[in-house]
Design brief:
alpha+beta; 244 residues
Amino acid sequence: MNSKFLFFSPALRRGLIVGLIAALSATAQTDTTATESGEARTDRLLSAVGGRNAWARVNVVIVEATHYALTAPTTYDNRIVNDLTRPRVRFEGHAPGWDRWATIDGDTGTYRRDHEPVVERGADRVASDNEWWAANLYRTLRRLAKKDPALTSQSVGEDRLEVFENGQLLNWFRLNEDGAPVLYGNNDPDSSGTIFGPLRSNPSGIRYPEWGAGENGAFRYRIEKFLVNPLVDDETFAIPDPTK
């Protein structure tokens, strides 16, 4: 999902979606004539992205990226501090004349626009951002690596992997012959998926897609920096006060 959406209202997020590719809908496919088990396909995915052991050790990631969008600002810098162990995230985006911050911490959240004061987020916005966190790519890879008992995997056709949480679709992937993810999505019916570029290695041992693009053309991003398990504290997840 384009992280810029997290700064806008749910209605505006839907309006920013410019197309829907029905064949790649997040709805679970019914053709299950796969040649390998869900577990085997999951193993291939994890092997391609650095291995089960490497991802099982990941607790926090900080991702800095350049984003390109259809709507203003069409280019902006984005930084996300993501605690994969619990719903605690700090988002920020910056472009000339445009600055945004947002946080979630469980069932609470805060928001800041430009030089305006930090305000509490509404319950609906916090719930929406928690849904984004629940299906976040890096969190799902970590959970698969740790063999989270709440998750089950299903192979569909020649290259699709579907991940379910307690029987409900959480994420889906399409994998190439090497097991690397080339397309990814969640259970959002308005999302046609994210196309992934080649994998980049990280000193932690994991590998991650170095760029992504909305399958419908709504956004693109290029990762500039990817930190794994940096030292963080409460201040890391706080929004700076414009009055100080």
